[in-house]
């Protein structure tokens, strides 16, 4: 075995090893290199980008863009503009999606090279707290390591052994064909996003969700407009329902569905499993370090993201919490700042979340559900998008913007938006909360007209009793 001893302290430079080149890992590597550290970045994939770029955020959003386009051409019929049914060239469509990914991963590889980062393609296994072995060939000795190995789809045992009849999100993004009858198991964001893609491309989609509502944990008033639209698009949305048995049959896969009043069997051509993700913490040799994981395999970290092994830090999906790309890159800023001795203020850490369905759902800060569960008193102001000129001009009044305020200070604690483009709109609310803005602050900011962003200002105005488009009960004659 060749031993590449990259101990950079000999060169009076700390050597940082980053394991995993997803949005957490590559951000950490790039920031550290910019601060003058010697950086080695290791990933099992030949190009940086991680799950997010290769089999997550980016390919799914490219496909959702196409789904939205198809859905808009259908909506246009009601406005007097009729297109025929789309003719879908699956190979070309996949090519376009893959090009988007290639372009971005090529860009990241270039940025890594320009920074002088040593990118090594291979599978890393810890031999001790300062040594990583890569694909059994090379050893790297490090001063500090940032573990950014992410997560993978969780597929319950029930569905094993069915081969290509079952897809996880990675297989679904391959888009090898469009099954006529698709069962989506799990009504979380990945299931609904991928279900929307397949529906737009021609699949009949059934979603089963074991809890009583889609997108568990998200405020119900935000989910309702999405559920109403999906109800028209999907063949079936089965809540309080579990898939409890599967059998391959000559016509596909027969699935036993269990709901509160009984069971039934249905046949599908394919099943998409989207019931959650699990941390990538096994097979890493963590037992050769002092890093501890919890019962679910998530790496245990301090507030500074330091593991129980002083030389190893962990960020992103592998530590759990919000398993989102921007959370991983935010962790990276914190850790690199700490390792390099800079004082990094993590701010309030307001974490936006977006479901990129049509309509989109986005929220940040306190949610109504969580406040109610905790018995926390809050004031809530809502603007239905029927009052928005912009929403009407695009034929999409099926939205809602709401703000959650602290009753004592009128400070904005949280925001939730459902509607087209909600994912872009939420950033303003994140900034408002980070900056301790009150409803009055937001109401006094001039917003361009006609835009959907006005709904945020109007929700603040409504809270203050000054909304031009909502009639206050007391002022009605
Ligand atoms: P990852 O991106 O998971 O990267 C980890 C990397 O580590 C991988 O490249 C892997 O190859 C490498 N690795 C693991 N073990 C080893 C090893 N032993 N040796 C070498 N390399 C190793 N998030 C959003 O914010 N917005 C979205 O719209 C969104 N959409 C998504 C859609 C789908 C279908 C999926 C699956 C996920 C989506 N996510 C989204 C979640 C997002 O992809 C993750 O939160 C994010 O990628 C986590 O980043 P990370 O840096 O922690 O790790």
Blueprint of the fold:
Blueprint: E1 15-19, H1 23-34, E2 38-43, H2 50-55, H3 57-75, H4 90-114, E3 118-121, E4 124-128, E5 131-134, E6 138-141, E7 144-147, E8 151-153, E9 166-167, H5 169-174, E10 181-185, H6 189-201, E11 204-208, H7 220-233, E12 236-238, E13 242-249, E14 252-259, E15 262-268, E16 270-273, E17 277-279, E18 312-314, H8 325-339, E19 353-355, E20 360-365, H9 368-374, E21 379-384, H10 389-393, E22 400-405, E23 412-419, H11 422-434, H12 439-443, H13 454-463
Parallel strand pairs: 1-2, 1-7, 2-3, 7-18, 9-16, 10-11, 10-16, 11-12
Antiparallel strand pairs: 4-5, 5-6, 8-17, 13-14, 14-15, 19-20, 20-23, 21-22, 22-23
The structure holds flavin-adenine dinucleotide.
Highlighted features:
alpha/beta; five-stranded parallel beta sheet; globular; binds flavin-adenine dinucleotide
Q: What is this structure, in a nutshell?
A:
31% of the residues lie in helices and 23% in strands. α3 (57-75) packs antiparallel against α4 (90-114).
Structural summary, described in words:
By secondary structure, the chain is an alpha/beta fold. The chain is 31% helix and 23% strand. It contains 13 helices and 23 strands. The chain has helices at residues 23-34, 50-55, 57-75, 90-114, 169-174, 189-201, 220-233, 325-339, 368-374, 389-393, 422-434, 439-443, 454-463, and strands at 15-19, 38-43, 118-121, 124-128, 131-134, 138-141, 144-147, 151-153, 166-167, 181-185, 204-208, 236-238, 242-249, 252-259, 262-268, 270-273, 277-279, 312-314, 353-355, 360-365, 379-384, 400-405, 412-419. The strands form six sheets. Strands 3-2-1-7-18 form a five-stranded parallel β-sheet, covered by helices on one side. Strands 9-16-10-11-12 form a five-stranded parallel β-sheet. A five-stranded antiparallel β-sheet has the order 19-20-23-22-21, sandwiched between helices. A hairpin with a 6-residue loop joins β22 (400-405) and β23 (412-419). α3 packs antiparallel against α4 and α3 crosses α6. The protein binds flavin-adenine dinucleotide (FAD). Flavin-adenine dinucleotide is lined by residues 19-25, 42-45, 50-52, 56-57, 60, 123-124, 148-151, 169, 190, 280, 284, 316-317, 323-326, 328, 356. Flavin-adenine dinucleotide binds at residues 19-25, 42-45, 50-52, 56-57, 60, 123-124, 148-151, 169, 190, 280, 284, 316-317, 323-326, 328, 356.
């Amino acid at each position: 075995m060749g031993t590449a001893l990259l101990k950079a302290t000999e060169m009076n430079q700390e050597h940082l090893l980053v394991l995993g080149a997803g949005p957490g890992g590559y951000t950490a590597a790039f920031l550290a290199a910019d601060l003058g550290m010697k950086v080695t970045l290791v990933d099992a994939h030949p190009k940086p980008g991680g799950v997010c770029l290769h089999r997550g955020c980016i390919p799914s959003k490219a496909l959702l863009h196409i789904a939205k386009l198809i859905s808009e051409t259908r909506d246009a019929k009601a406005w007097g503009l009729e297109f025929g049914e789309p003719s879908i060239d699956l190979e070309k469509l996949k090519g376009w999606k893959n090009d988007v990914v290639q372009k971005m991963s090529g860009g990241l590889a270039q940025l890594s090279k320009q920074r002088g980062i040593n990118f090594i393609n291979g599978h890393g296994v810890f031999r001790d707290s300062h040594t990583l072995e890569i694909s059994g060939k090379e050893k790297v000795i490090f001063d500090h390591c940032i573990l950014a190995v992410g997560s993978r789809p969780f597929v319950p045992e029930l569905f094993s052994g069915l081969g290509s009849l079952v897809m996880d999100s990675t297989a679904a993004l391959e888009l090898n064909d469009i099954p006529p009858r698709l069962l989506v198991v799990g009504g979380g964001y990945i299931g609904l996003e991928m279900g929307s893609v397949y529906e737009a491309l021609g699949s009949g989609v059934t979603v089963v969700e074991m809890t009583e509502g889609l997108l568990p944990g998200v405020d119900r008033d935000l989910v309702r407009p999405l559920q109403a639209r999906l109800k028209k698009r999907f063949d079936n949305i089965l809540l309080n329902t579990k898939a409890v048995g599967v059998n391959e049959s000559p016509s596909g896969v027969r699935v036993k569905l269990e709901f509160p009043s009984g069971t039934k069997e249905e046949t599908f051509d394919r099943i998409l499993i989207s019931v959650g993700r699990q941390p990538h913490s096994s097979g890493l040799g963590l037992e050769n370090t002092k890093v501890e994981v919890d019962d679910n395999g998530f790496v245990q970290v301090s507030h500074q993201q330091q593991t129980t092994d002083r030389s190893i830090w962990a960020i992103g999906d592998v530590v759990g919490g919000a398993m989102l790309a921007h959370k991983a890159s935010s962790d990276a800023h914190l850790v690199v700042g700490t390792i390099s001795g800079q004082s990094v203020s993590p701010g309030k850490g307001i974490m936006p979340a977006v479901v990129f369905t049509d309509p989109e759902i986005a929220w940040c800060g306190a949610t109504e559900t969580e406040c109610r569960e905790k018995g926390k008193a809050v004031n809530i102001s809502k603007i239905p998008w029927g009052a928005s000129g912009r929403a009407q001009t695009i034929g999409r009044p099926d939205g809602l913007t709401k703000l959650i305020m602290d009753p004592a200070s009128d400070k904005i604690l949280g925001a939730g938006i459902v509607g087209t483009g909600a994912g872009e709109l939420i950033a303003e609310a994140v900034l408002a909360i980070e900056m301790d803005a009150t409803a009055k602050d937001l109401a006094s900011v001039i917003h361009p007209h006609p835009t959907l962003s006005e709904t945020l200002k109007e929700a603040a105005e409504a809270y203050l009793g000054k909304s031009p488009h909502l009639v206050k009960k007391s002022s009605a004659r």
